[in-house]
Design brief:
Length: about 130
């Protein structure tokens, strides 16, 4: 995975962590990204460590996300070791984050012959009972 793909996933992680619909996996990916940013000293514009800055990033604030991903990109461009860490973060969290954004299109076409109940869903956790 390259740095650009990792930065795209960083934005996806923010979306997955924002709002009341945040999943535990999305929140975990977001917190892991912020921890990586803190360890790299990303916070202040001059690059000096600011442990509180990444933790204060609101995943629902597009401007804060843009600034954070810009700083991640700058650091990755200047530091191959950090770029590798960022890509490693993305590879670990990509399956979950991509699933967060996946869309399901359920259809029953016009010529279908249905003889029982039809359930259309993305994820089902638990039993389904008809009757």
């Amino acid at each position: 995975m390259d740095v650009d793909a990792a930065l795209t996933l960083a934005t996806t992680a923010a979306s997955a962590a924002a709002g009341g619909a945040a999943t535990a996996a999305g929140q975990s990916a977001w917190e892991s990204l912020l921890a990586l940013a803190r360890r790299a000293g990303i916070g202040r514009r001059d690059g000096t460590p600011d442990d509180g800055a990444p933790a204060a990033v609101d995943p629902a604030d597009d401007e804060q996300i843009r600034v954070l991903t810009g700083r991640l990109a700058e650091r990755a461009g200047a530091d191959a070791e950090f770029a590798a860490l960022l890509c490693g973060w993305a590879e670990r969290h990509a399956p979950t984050l991509r699933a967060e954004r996946s869309e399901v299109h359920n259809t029953v076409s016009e010529g279908a012959h249905i003889t029982g109940p039809v359930v259309q869903a993305r994820d089902i956790h638990g039993d389904l009972n008809f009757g």
